[in-house]
Amino acid sequence: MSIMSARVRPMEVSDVPRVVEMDGIIFGHTLGEQTLIAELTEKTLGHYFVLEDDEGTFVGHIGLWIDVPYAQILNFYIIPKRQRQGYGKMLLEFALGYLEAFQVTDITLEVRKSNIKAQALYSRHAFQIISTRKQYYPDGEDAYVMLRRNEGISP
After folding, report:
1. Which residue in 33, 36, 50, 147 has a CA-CA distance of 20 to 30 Å to 23?
2. What are the C-alpha distances in Å from 152 to residues 26, 76, 106, 149, 155?
3. Cα gap 63→27, rounded to integer Å
4. pLDDT tens, 120-146?
5. Residues near 7 by Cβ (< 8 Å), separated by ≥ 6?
């Protein structure tokens, strides 16, 4: 299946139950429906997006916190059955372009030490490991903190 007609759109309140469900399956935890709804309706630092395939089926999600000139990539995933098809690259590149429009200079994220696939994707997009957060996740696994510095953008 081609991803050419896949689209990224802002998350809507109606997307929250699906996103919360997938957060729980993929991460084992979630921000929860109330928190996400508040983030969407109260115009906080959060910017949330969903990725749909050409049939309108949910494929993935990314959340961003923007506090110019800094940003953080929050939950970011492609549902397991759609991974390794180019969707992750598409969604990450959308997010990076979106952040560029805000003149963001530094983008950080956390990634599981064991998530080699995600680390490789981030590395291909100029993220570098800058530190480790010991026992960061509820199951005790460490997280790498990765940083992408957008050169040429001045705060």
Report:
1. 147
2. 35, 26, 11, 9, 10
3. 14
4. 999 999 999 999 999 998 889 999 999
5. 51, 52
Of 58, 127, 51, the C-alpha closest to 96 is 127
Q: Give the separation between CA 77 and CA 63, rounded to whole angstroms.
A: 10
Query: Tokens representing 93?
Result: 């590149």
* CATH class belonging to 7-149: alpha beta
Query: pLDDT (tens digit, 9 = 90+) per residue, 25-52?
Result: 888 778 788 888 888 888 779 999 999 9
Can you tell me whether residue 66 is helix, strand or coil? strand
Query: Given strand 128-133, what is the order of strands in its sheet?
Result: 7-10, 46-52, 58-67, 70-78, 106-112, 143-149, 128-133
As given in the structure block, the two tokens for residue 54 are 């050409």
Domain ranges of the chain: 7-149
Q: Token pair for residue 40? A: 């969407």
